[in-house]
Amino acid sequence: MDMQNVVVGARGVAAEDVLAVARGGARVEISADALEGVARARDVIDALAAKPEPVYGVSTGFGALAVRHISPELRAQLQRSLVRSHAAGMGPRVEREVVRALAFLRLKTLASGRTGVRPVVVETMAAILNAGITPVVHEYGSLGCSGDLAPLAHCAQVLMGEGEAEGPDGVVRPVADLLAEHGIEPVELREKEGLALINGTDGMLGMLVMACADLAALFTAADVTAALTLEALLGTDRVLAPELHVIRPHPGQAASADNMLRVLAGSGLTGHHQDDAPRVQDAYSIRCAPQVAGAGRDTLAHARLVADRELAAAIDNPVVIDTGGPEGARVESNGNFHGAPVGYVLDFLAIAAADLASIAERRTDRLLDKNRSHGLPPFLADDPGVDSGLMIAQYTQAALVSEMKRLAVPASVDSIPSSAMQEDHVSMGWSAARKLRTAVDALTRVVAVEMFAATRALEIRTTGTELRPAAASAAVLAAVRAAGIPGPGRDRFLAPDLEAAYVFVRDGSLVRAAESVTGPLA
Question: Which interval of the chain is the signal sequence (predicted)?
Fold first, then answer.
């Protein structure tokens, strides 16, 4: 486990910080400046709590119940009741990395000095993260507006010493026992604090940050597999020439074309499209690979811009505003908790991922079809008819692509009213994030099947001939075989081989093998 430290200040965090805490186990520190700002904002809340006038989140109920003024002696109970009642999630447990990202991003907002919690709340949240205690959060419960309410409430329960959590050993146990073992005192929440703990887009944002990192790697992997397929089909690399992409100046397209061109450098297979069955042009799935993958890259760039803005944000309602003017600090209600900006790009990425999977599946099918593969055996089988080769591997790939098309249906347009029509328009950003995570995993598998087919096709194409693949392609072939993923031959139990190919793509081995020749790819 990477035990680097991530310092949380008052101005937000970077995507790399989220990944370090969520996936790398990095320790969290709160800067002294941030703690001072937290204390100043708390002074504002304490002053408002002492006044007779009702202030939302401080001395009133919540949502449609905000019309009731809560007397001081009931306010601690109000905060406890809020957290307990909102910890209403159902369904399977959410993955550990998602929960750590969720908790870390809520901590980031609390440290901004905009929410009005006490410093002890921030410090205790950091201690829980550093102890490796991960709240049990469930799949269903967030509408992506007024924050990821149920998921965050399950995290807030842990801060109170209630509920269940996963310990650093991976075992789910009562929270009270886990906190005691690590010397962490539960927090008795005061005015505003329960609301501040649950009112943010942190779950959907954490999943967006991780999906962006995963998709960036997958776009590069898809460029490599597209190049391998082009080579195995004796296609032309002339369509990858930089001057063709300058005249349509989408940066993602240029990056993908350059990646493919570098992988194919020195190939003895490209350009043979005019030999036996002359082709004026390659099929769209080959020729337009940079355009499709490049559009996805540009979509990813926009999503990262939105994520960066959210990472710099302080999302809560109400918030403490201090412009430094003569009127002093004040507390204002707002709608910044609405997840629309995040929900839109989560949906957009699911569309881009589905289309990239679709074009990769079409390339795989072309490798397996003897009528379109320019001399390769049917289904890349050893003895076609006796052997089925990779026929059903393509079925599996097609099933994944079909599932991804369903996952590309936008969640963010599916608003449903809640809280007695007070919260009458919601983002469904959490749902968009959950389906994107499924889509990213499916895309990894689709790319793995194309890699499996393309490497087999390259070996078949070059065995017993003078033709030689590009140096980068040869490096990929060698790495694939070294990983125990087999080449051409008689039919065998295919599922374990496909799973090994999936791991090879997912852990970055495919891209690293190509880069051992090309140098860093975009």
Answer: none
Q: In a 10 Å sphere around its CB, with 0-12 CB exposed, 13-18 middle and 19+ buried, how is residue 271 labelled?
A: middle
Evaluate if residue 61 carries a pLDDT over 80: no
Instruction: Read off the CATH number of the domain in which 86 is found.
Output: 1.10.275.10
Same domain assignment for residues 76 and 218: no
- In the three-class reduction of DSSP (H, G, I as helix; E, B as strand; rest coil), residue 69 is classed as strand
* Domain stops at, among 200, 216, 236: 200
- Using CA atoms, how far apart are residues 210 and 96, in angstroms rounded to an integer? 13
The residue from 56, 284, 395, 502 that is catalytic is: 56
Q: Does residue 24 sit within a domain?
A: yes
The pLDDT, as a whole number, for residue 57 is 73
CATH of residue 402's domain is 1.20.200.10
What is the spatial distance between Cα 231 and Cα 315, in angstroms, rounded to a whole number?
A: 50
Our count of domains for the chain comes to: 2
Burial of 442 (0-12, 13-18, 19+ CB in 10 A): buried
CA distance 14 to 474: 38
Q: Is residue 342 part of a domain?
A: no
Q: Which residues pair with 174 in a beta bridge?
A: 164
Q: Is the pLDDT of residue 459 over 90?
A: yes
Residues 291 and 388 in one domain: yes
Q: Is 300 in the same domain as 171?
A: no
Q: What is the pLDDT of residues 240-276, one digit of tens each?
A: 999 999 999 999 999 999 999 999 999 999 987 666 6
Domain that holds residue 254: 207-314+355-518
**Alpha-carbon span 18 to 16, nearest angstrom:** 5
Q: Based on the domain organization, do 148 and 218 belong to the same domain?
A: no
Distance CA 432, CA 413 (A): 10
Q: Are residues 361 and 472 in the same domain?
A: yes
Task: Count CB atoms within 10 A of the CB of residue 506.
Answer: 19
SS3 337: coil
Q: Are residues 404 and 256 in the same domain?
A: yes
Q: Are residues 173 and 254 located together in one domain of the fold?
A: no
- Say yes or no: 369 and 450 in one domain: yes
**Which token pair is 261?**
């061109």
Say whether 330 sits in a helix, a strand or coil: strand
pLDDT level of residue 1 (50, 70, 90 thresholds)? very low
What DSSP element (H or E) covers 92?
strand 90-93
Which has the closest alpha carbon to 43: 116, 126, 146? 116
Q: Could you give the C-alpha distances from 486 to 227, 283, 467, 500, in angstroms and in order?
A: 20, 28, 21, 10
Cβ(124)–Cβ(197) below 8 Å: no
CA distance linking residue 514 with residue 522, whole number of Å: 12
Residue 42 forms part of a structural domain: yes
Alpha-carbon Rg of the chain, whole angstroms? 27
